Amino acid sequence: MSKITINKDRVFVMLLLITLHSSLFTLTSCNEYLDVQPDNRAALDNESKITDLLVSAYPETSYFFLAEMYSDNTDRNEKGKSYTAFSNLQEQAALWQDITDINQDSPYAIWGHYYKAIAAANNVIIAINKLGNPKHLDPQRGEALLCRAYCHFVLGNLFCMAYSPKTCNQDLGLTYITHAESEVSPVYERGTMAQLYRNIAADIEAGVPLVSDNLHEVVKFHFNKKAAYAFAARFYLYYMQDDLSNLDKAIHYASLVLGDRPGDVLRDWQALGKISTTDGQRGNAFVDVADKANLLILSTASYWQWIYGPTGVAMRYTHNDKIAETETCKSRGFWGSNNSFYFDVTTSAVGPKVLMYKLPQFFQYTDVTKGVGYPKMLMPVFTTDALILDRAEAYALKGDFIKAMQDLTTWMHAFTTTSGVVDATMLSNTYGPYSGSGSAMGGIATSSTGMNYYTPTEPTPKKRLDPDFTVAAGTQEDIIHAVLHARRVTCLHEGLRWFDVKRYGIEIYRRNVKDESYITVFDTLTKNDPRRAIQLPSHVITAGIQANPRN
Questions:
Q1: Is 75 left (phi over 0), alpha (psi -120 to 50) or beta?
Q2: pLDDT one-digit tens code per residue, 298-328
Q3: What is the pLDDT of residue 81?
Q4: Any idea which architecture 12-20+28-74+96-542 has in CATH?
Q5: Rounded-to-integer distance, Cα 87 and Cα 511, Å
Q6: How many whole angstroms separate alpha carbon 73 and alpha carbon 67?
Q7: What is the pTM for the complete model shown?
């Protein structure tokens, strides 16, 4: 796959050409990554047709763009008067507004494509039931159940408040769709987050034992055993219970993937960091199905790689050098300085973007002769790199600090050049109370003396945590800060930071950044701000589905 260079005018022309329906791919160099959608109307009366339909049970739209814009990985850049947003969607998302844009990456597109995938999964399950639920179709049933669960899980984390053990019986959820639609525009009661998560859990528990690694030629484009375990681990990490029993399940499922030698299944960041960033080479390697770290990869239509990437567009709202130096990929952490990262970062030559080359750009033509179509992106939605941090978090919340720090050590050795062992003293010296006298980095000590909590004008990676579950001061809090910091760097541009912000009740700010010395705050997203639940698409509300509340 080759890197695509286009100008801004062509980007907006292509916006007019996007459709929410699938097309056949004719970009020869990328055919190996893409599946062709079968006709959903065909009679599902044999194993082959049922298996083919599973391709449609995966969403075709990415949430990376939307989640990153909502998160604290975004500032508004004021230095260049020529800086503009990529689209109304980017501006509305970055400003936490109810989004009216209906183009690709929007709530409109996400809602439609995820529910389309749910419908395909339900049709597979119904067809298998009609055939008498034969044993040989167990892998297809398992995959369909997991696809249905995954789509509901992402929709819930975008369009609802974070799951809370305190308020889940009152917080609005989403209806769990388990049947084929007989109406053109059915209207549902949304139910609660408790109901939504119970249904997701039921599908995961039913689906995981059935999944097979032998059903598809390229298993990483589908739920395989390891991807299923990784999904289950993340879900149970989010599905917090008062007795912490969910954490035992998260650890169990994560361990089925990580094994006794977790370092052996992590990405080779050192080798990846040596690959050239030209012509998309490093990005292609990052999403390669052959990489042991990649567990599930989805092919989606998205502009995200142009927006966050090294292009001359979308400079108004970005992950900029201020965030990078004080909070993310250029910041100091328990591993030491950013100079210890194997995976180096890039600062745009034409604007304020700071990025990690991850997601390659390629193009799906709807008309090769006319040269029109739309951009595609491969999403590595489950990786061992994120999974080991999920397990470290679960260990820490369970109070098993030794195992949590062992996982952090394994991550540190894979991602950085730092040797040694992560221990409580190291973490306290990094994330504990700041005991120094002044700092050039907003309260981040230049020696091992802790750091201050973040403020918008004196930023650090350490933000106050206010989850609806207990995080004790001291070692437990230090480990959670370390995990959140490591995940924020490792999964930069991949949307997971937004989910962490919601789960941990982290207050975040929208800032105008002109230069290092000029930062002003123009909006604040508090823990209980209803805007944390992205508003449903307007056509859904008009059809009668209850909207998310707004102040």
A1: beta
A2: 999 999 999 999 888 999 999 999 999 999 9
A3: 63
A4: Alpha Horseshoe (1.25)
A5: 19
A6: 9
A7: 0.91
